[in-house]
Amino acid sequence: MELIIKAKGIVKTFVDGEVETPVLKGIDLEIKRGEFLSIMGRSGAGKSTLIYQLGLLDEPTGGQIDINGTDTLALNWSKKTDFRLKYLGYVFQDYALVPELTAVENVALPLLMRGIQTNKALEKAREVLHTLELHQQVNNFPSQLSGGEQQRVSIARAIVDEPEIIFCDEPTANLDSLSARVVIDILKKLNKSGQTIVMVTHEDEYARQTDRIIKLADGLIESEEILTPAK
Amino acid sequence: MLDLNSIKVGWFLGYRQIKRASLWTNLLIIIIMILTFLNLVVVSGLLVGLIEGAVVTIREHYISDIFISKLKEKNYIEDSQNIIATLQNIPGVSSFSPRYLVSGIIEANYQDRTDFNNLPEETAAIIAGIDFEKENAVTGLGSLIVEGEYLDNDDFDQVIVGAMLLDRYLDIDSPSFTVLRDVEIGSKIKLKIGDEAREVTVKGITRGKADEIDRRVFINDKQLRNMIGRSDLNVGEISIAVDDQYKPEFVRDVLLQNGFGRYARIQTFDEAQPKFIIDMKNTFALLGTIISSIGLIVAAITIFIVIFINAITRRKYIGIMKAIGTNGRSIELAYVFQSLIYAIVGSVIGLILVYVVLVPYFNGNPIDFPFSDGILVAPALVTMIRVCVLIVVTALAGYIPARIIVTKNTLDSILGRK
Is B272 domain-assigned? Predict the structure, then answer.
């Protein structure tokens, strides 16, 4: 199957004054289009740092990341923002919804940035929230939603403009088990429809529901486990 | 680059941030903007208004629209009657008042004088012989009467005395600048012009807060002519009121074309007003601008701090918005729009306060300064320029802190790293 992400020799070293802390020490990783990949590892293993590099939220110290055939490290910050808007979606651990926007406005934001008319963007956002069974909460502010509802709004925002890849950074970490299962079911459903998903998680139960697990340790891939060989 | 979509998204975010911000925060910022606007417009407006009050007084109650005065080297305007006859036929001249002027001495309390070793109680004054009806039509002198009554043209041996000749109105103690004590309505005073002296009764006291009115004694023109033996009917000055639909320059030019420039100085009000008043007006305007500018800087810093604190506490959300593809320009514009909304709302409320409340109030209740009745001067054009300055400065004060936060690394913003 076609590769959508091809990362080679990813190195990330944090520098604080004279102290250098290597977090990623040369990671090679290929992700196929339509794959559901989970990244696991102990705290400090570099899981989140890796997903930030792959999701173009940070600049690696070294290496190369091609997404959809584009050498992303050659893009400047402005082009990276455009690239993220066009091809990537994000689900954060703490939902990361803009507090003064309602659920529907949060979801509509990426569409507005794409130049879609406000009314149409809100309409589309409403539709997506309906599919995630949030039709009652469309006009609620994040503070008026439960953790599970907020995470579903966050997913809606990530998928509303149909990105090529969704990056999820521990999307179930702050949720109770019931809400966490709902979120994982949504992600699985999206993946079934062809969506590529890269998820960081520390929960084995949820990682096992994905196609492949890579485990990081000390800045390197320690092991890889393919759960759905067909992909 | 500034594109329409960034503006649209910026407005979408900025409007909602204001709409959903704390009511008290919004109120506080708007109050700051109103006060800044008032500081910009009212402080300088009142400073200029002090002088403008004097200018208005001189225009309305002395010079009027056109002022004809004697040449420096002459004692009076030659060919005055020809000028007056011409004035009666110039279209646009609504009224005019010729004044006979002589320097004189007025003496008070001479009836009670017992010690003739002491100097008499007297002061120098300009004696103005006027047609009371004509003068009132041009300068409204009657409206400046603060005690007693205005005179009719049939009133002889009666005068109106300027307030600055009386100690009750000008409490000054200087041997070189004397004022008269105990002069009331009905008091007898002596007018001395050269060797001629005449006892007259004070019928009214006029107060216009201008030397040209308040240091004069007004008397019937016929009686003054008799006193000084002026049979040529040449006057010292003429004030002319011009209809609104005519420009004063038109009347001036007609007079000059008739050759009267040889006998008199013929000036519009703008030309005739004393230079020191123009200088004072400019100085006060500059002073007002300096004070206003300080206020503007303080307001800009306040807005800067408010927006900076707002942006820094929302740094994480700014990072998230950038992460999901919102460009930095839209986020910066969101803050610029917030600042603009505050500035515009503050300015609109300020404009209403100035033009609906303060200007009418000060017009009706001028501030009682010794040299003028201070009003609030707020010309629309100047005010609009100040509104624009306020809006631009506020927009900048909103943009700079937003820019500082937006240019920070996206991930650092999301994770709250330094």
Answer: no
* B414·A57 Cβ contact <8 A: yes
In this prediction, residue A36 has a pLDDT band, given cuts at 50, 70 and 90, of: very high
For B222, the domain range is: 75-262
Structure tokens at B77: 């305007």
Q: With an 8 Å Cβ cutoff, are A98 and B320 in contact?
A: yes
Shortest CB distance from B9 goes to which of A55, A81, A113?
A113
Per-residue pLDDT band for A207 (boundaries 50, 70, 90) equals very high
Position B46: which residue type?
L
* Overall domain count for chain B: 2
pLDDT higher for B191 or B277? B191
| Domains contained in chain A, CATH given | 35-47+80-226 (3.40.50.300)
Whether residue B194 is found in the same domain as residue B156: yes
Choose among B16, B320, B327: nearest Cβ to A113.
B327
Q: Tell me whether residues A110 and B325 touch, CB distance under 8 A.
A: yes
pLDDT digits (tens, 9 = 90+) for B58-78: 889 999 999 999 998 888 999
What's the CA angle centered on B124, arms B120 and B130, to 5 degrees? 125
What is d(CA B39, CA B350) in angstroms, rounded to the nearest whole number?
10
- Tell me: do B221 and B287 sit in the same domain: no
A69 at the B interface (CB within 8 A)?
Answer: no
Same domain assignment for residues B115 and B86? yes
Determine the Cα–Cα distance for residues A38 and B38; give it in Å rounded to an integer: 61
Give the residue from B237, B262, B287 where a domain finishes. Answer: B262
Q: Residue with structure tokens 């393919």?
A: A226
**How large is the ipTM?**
0.86
The verdict on a CB contact (< 8 Å) between A82 and B328 is no
What pLDDT, in 10s, does the model give residues A63-114? 999 999 999 999 988 888 889 988 999 998 888 899 989 999 999 999 999 8
* Residue A207 · residue A173 · CB < 8 Å: no
Q: Judge if B178 and B117 occupy the same domain.
A: yes
